[in-house]
Amino acid sequence: MSEEAIIVTDAPGSEDNLVLPFQIEEQNVRGRAIRLGTTVDQVLEARDYPEDIAALMGEILALTGLLGSIMKFEGKLTLQAKADGAITLMVADYESPGKVRGYAQVDQEKYDALPENPSLYDIFGKGYLAMTMDQGADMERYQGIVELSGDSIADCAQAYFKTSEQTPTRLHLSAGRDPVTNRWRAGGLMIQHLAHGEEGGPRLMVQEEENIWEHLKVLTQTIRPEELRDPQLTLKTLLYRLYHEDGVRVFDPVSIVRNCKCSADYLLSVLKSFSPDQQEEMVENDKISVNCAFCNKDFFFTLDDLQKG
Ligand SMILES: [Zn+2]
User: What would the mean pLDDT of 136-164 be, rounded to a whole number?
Assistant: First the structure.
């Protein structure tokens, strides 16, 4: 099966499309920051989303990059929001190293009926956010689920970490159009308070009371959404501004590219798995057309193609 990689080329010196892991010196606090330029712009512009839906999609994509880049092994992380509101489905996935994609399904009728400045609940209605991590055959598949609630995607993911992983986490996400270029940009910042010492040490929830964690939470909250995606402000400068008094150490960045796995070979193998009757039902104007929901690419096949090989 051939895979066509869409490699994004950014201007020289660009500090976009990467995740920067960091640690607060001598503390059990780790974090990562993400900045997306062309990567998020390509995903959002592939489909004609309403602006506020595109912004949510951009935030989910930033979150996927943050969480996916934590995986220690080759693997795949999928975030999927399923709901009964104006958005019925929002999916983003990450495949190591650093390949992301995503799309949203919009119920146009419900979207048109939304109030002005809709809340997260107005947009999604009732639903949940599921996270699935797959790290190859030897590792267990892992899935966690949390109700879609709170004021933002970041709130919702924070609640997930609190209930499913018992890891105190602070998350900030932002997506929006650059005021100068009008291109989409996204950014995110996450800090986590990790367990210290040996297994059987004090529970993490107790640590949330610790002064240092409170202090870092307050510092992290001072970040403005525009700063998270500001092309003039590198992630290193941003982290330095926030945490320089405590000391912040950054690790090697991970590049994030937009990549869709759709290929004619793969789609052909899927179509071949249908019965001849079903295949015939799919034919319209002598051909079967398939659209990739992620990248909006169209593929066309004839019944002859399906019989070959
Ligand atoms: Zn595709």
Answer: 87
DSSP β-ladder status, 127-134 and 288-291: unpaired
Amino acid at 174: S
Q: What is the pTM of this model?
A: 0.88
**DSSP structure class, residue 163:** H
Say how many Å lie between the CA of residue 205 and the centre of ligand 1: 42
CB neighbourhood size of 225 (10 A): 15
| Cα(293) to centroid(ligand 1), Å | 7
Q: Which CATH number fits domain 264-307: 3.90.1280.10, 3.40.50.1100, 3.90.70.10, 3.40.1190.10?
A: 3.90.1280.10
Q: How confident is the model over 78-124, as pLDDT tens digits?
A: 999 999 999 999 999 999 999 999 999 999 999 999 999 999 999 99
Indicate the angle between helix axes 153-164 and 51-68, nearest 10 degrees: 30
Can you list the positions of beta strands (E) in the chain? Answer: 18-24, 29-36, 76-83, 87-95, 99-106, 127-134, 142-147, 169-177, 184-193, 248-250, 254-255, 257-258, 288-291, 298-301
Q: Which fold has domain 18-258?
A: Hsp33 domain (3.55.30)
CA of 258 to the centre of ligand 1 (A): 10
10 CA → ligand 1 middle, Å: 21
CA of 46 to the centre of ligand 1 (A): 10
pLDDT above 70: percentage of residues in the chain? 89
Out of 29-43, 60-74, 189-203, 273-287, least confident range: 189-203
Give the integer Cα–Cα distance in Å for 178 and 37. 9
Q: Name the one residue in this structure whose structure tokens are 């995606």.
A: 229
Q: Where are the domains of the chain?
A: 18-258, 264-307
* CA separation for the pair 255, 99 (Å, rounded): 8
With 70 as the cut, is the pLDDT of residue 202 above it?
Answer: no
Instruction: Give residue-wise pLDDT tens across range 114-133.
Output: 999 999 999 999 999 999 99
